[in-house]
Design a protein that fits this description.
The chain is of the alpha+beta class and 261 residues long. The chain folds into three domains: 48 residues; 74 residues, Histone H3 K4-specific methyltransferase SET7/9 N-terminal domain; 117 residues, Single Sheet (Histone H3 K4-specific methyltransferase SET7/9 N-terminal domain). 19% of the residues lie in helices and 43% in strands. It starts with a helix and ends in a 21-residue tail after the last strand.
Length: 261
């Protein structure tokens, strides 16, 4: 007995459609899985990017081209580049006592041009050699007086110039932070009656001492003798007190009621 051909064709057609539907469902599942994985990777990449934005992009201890703020121990912090684990090149060092140094470093030592800002408001600026200032420097004390010259034990010593906050200007010799030796003091605007007057002579521990010249702002010159910052004109008995608190001069050639600073 012969089998019917249409029935065989129908069964084969159903089988083919079943396999096609199976492959389609499998393909869709794979596509959905791939899409899910891609979305997860994109999300993770985005999170990693956000994390990387919060993390320092380099390590100054291992990368000599890296320039970041790092803690060095002993309360010190440094902004700049490191070489062999030490500050090298231009940067800023922060000290635990509140001081700050801005300038050049050579393997941890302040070397080259730089300025040390002290916590009390004073500063030291100049050329550094192995952590020590060398040669002429600029110094400003906590009161705002500024000095240019040489320092010994962080105080003006030797020849230099100082501008005082009251406007006075001194050029000459210093010892342990005070005018000492030969020098010239020009009086500033705070002196009222003596603005522009100039004292040329000797100082001892910041006070005028010995024979000197006093040049008035109008160019007149008086020879004076000073002791412990108290000056009088030579040849006269009229003492002229420092700061305009003393008696007036009896020398009419100096004008009425002129007082030595």
């Amino acid at each position: 007995m012969k089998m019917s051909k249409p029935n065989n064709l129908s069964q084969r057609s159903k089988s083919a459609r079943g396999r096609a539907l199976h492959y389609l469902r499998f393909g869709l599942s794979a596509l959905l899985l791939q899409s899910s994985l891609a979305l997860a990777e994109a999300s993770e990449s985005s999170e990693n990017s956000a994390d990387e934005a919060l993390i320092e992009p380099c390590d100054p201890f291992t990368d000599s081209t890296c320039s970041n703020r790092v803690e060095l121990g002993n309360g010190q912090a440094f902004e700049g580049r490191l070489k062999q684990g030490k500050p090298h090149g231009r940067g800023m060092m922060f000290y635990p006592n509140g001081d700050r140094f801005e300038g050049h470093f050579d393997l941890g030592a302040r070397t080259g041009r730089g300025t040390l800002f002290k916590a009390d408001g004073s500063l030291y600026s100049g050329f550094w050699v192995r952590d020590r200032l060398n040669g002429a420097v600029e110094w400003r004390d906590r009161a705002g007086n500024t000095f240019q010259g040489s320092l010994v034990n962080e105080k003006p010593h030797g020849r230099g110039r100082m501008l005082f906050v009251n406007g006075d200007r001194y050029t000459g010799e210093f010892a342990m932070g005070l005018p000492h030796g030969e020098g010239v003091m020009v009086y500033g605007s705070s002196r009222v009656e003596n603005v522009g007057d100039r004292y040329e002579g000797r100082f001892e521990r910041g006070q005028r001492q010995g024979s000197a010249r006093y040049i008035w702002s109008d160019g007149q010159v008086s020879n004076v003798r000073c002791q412990m910052d108290r000056c009088e004109q030579e040849g006269l008995m009229n003492k002229l007190r420092v700061g305009g608190k003393g008696e007036t001069s009896g020398d009419q050639s100096m004008g009425p009621r002129r007082r030595l600073r």
